[in-house]
Amino acid sequence: MAETSNPPTAANFVHDVVVEHNATGAFGGRVQTRFPPEPNGYLHIGHAKAITADFELAREFDGVCRLRFDDTNPDTEDSSFVDGIIEDLAWLGYPLDRDPLFTSDYFTQLAEWAELLISNGLAYVDDQDGDTISEQRGGYGKPGVDSPFRNRTVEENLALFSAMRAGGFDEGAHVLRAKIDMQHENMQLRDPVMYRIRKESHHRTGDAWSVYPTYDWAHGQSDAIEGVTHSLCSLEFDSHRALYDWYLDQLRELGALRFEQPRQYEFARLELTHTITSKRKLATLVANGVVDGWDDPRLPTLRGLRRRGYPAAAIREFCDFIGVSKTNSRHEIELLESFIRTRLNKVAQRRMAVLEPLKVVITNWPTDADGNPVVEYVELNNNPENAEDGTRTAPFSGVLYIEHDDFKAEPPPKYYRLTPGREVRLRGAYFVTATDFVSDDDGNVVEVHVTYDPDTKGGNAPDGRKVKSTMHWVSAAHAVEAEVALYDRLFAAEVPGSETGDPFDDLNGESKTLLHGCKLEPALADTAAGEVVQFERLGYFAADQRTPLLFHRTVGLRDEWANIQKRK
Known about the structure:
alpha/beta; elongated; 13 helices; 568 residues; CATH 2.40.240.10; 7-stranded mixed β-sheet
């Protein structure tokens, strides 16, 4: 389990609930939670909040949190998602210390309990289709209508449900519904569906079952079987809590449950600006080729964020900071990025990379006896934030690359970088002054000529003169060539779909730019897959996990969250 040394920095009402429970002796002081994803997609940033809420609550009170897959829908679930979710959990900081649980483990028990409800007149088989059932349930202020099959005999219901289980009917022919109250003000209690017929092969049980439980029927009973004490859900399940309790109450009164019932608590989901977290919509982006798979760095999936270089620790810190509340809100993505930047600033090694190279020739650079430019080595800090990271050396010679934007033949106002006649410092090396430049037939600058001052190595200036700009560079003869992916928001609007109702209308067609022919200092050739480094002056970049010498921009250096706070 992830290490956490600091107390929560924001309100956590569930923490307060557990403190009260422990004070009153509820659950005998025991705390058990569960994280129950459906294996029909990969985890995303919204799940990260639920994960940290569940696992950290159990950790804080010396309890237990279990991973339980809600695998009740064979149409969309797959074992590859099971494996991926386990991997993502471990990466986020919560490796499993025991085998995961599955709702499918309880299919037999759930069916037996359903038969118990039928036997006691608390459930019935309905022959109507889904649209009719939905229409008959009415609405807020609109009364419900009893199903014409609501008063079937217990014997008939048991026989029909048995035939449903045996595969004797086509999909949609029947459903099993709880018999509660079609006039109840809470719509969830208007005879909800408990089982549907599905003729799909299940990723674990194969073709053993022809009926599958709904989430509402399976959820609370699975919690009870496992001994969950505090069942945390997102706010949309607030109205479902009465149904959660109703099922458990009936089974308890019928003697099926002999221990203290779990209690459900709802908290606000994590929503970010410029982001969607609907698994269905994320799957559409993947299926339509808008992004390059579930681990595309533009996606909010945990595997996408990992590939982009987001540290797991920073995500946990962000979730801890925003807290666990009952009020829905949308957080600025810049806030999350500030946590990423703060963490990386402490741990990321500094390196020099030129993304859009411009050739620079030092015209007075010395040559050796064979007429080749002399090669020197300059010493550079690996991370000025951490002296223990030490230093490295980088080769420096008479031909270099600088960023194309670091030279202007006709500089705009307040431009302090290289321009004809101006002196600048090259990081860790010498002062240089631009003397000339070469342009192509279209007027684009393709080469800059400079002279260097040999007395200024390492930034020294014996006469005390100062320059207004320090620029990064890469020795041309030693440069490593790479590709670099730059990212903008996948959705241009702060709230995708807020204007038209369709978030895909706000897709940013320029959310990714892939640069070829980037020039990197030699040390970057040894960057481990997934490692994040700071390209000096440019931002933080992650080495791709599969493709050598491909780097993804994690975040820039500018603290956009601080600027937002200043404007506020």
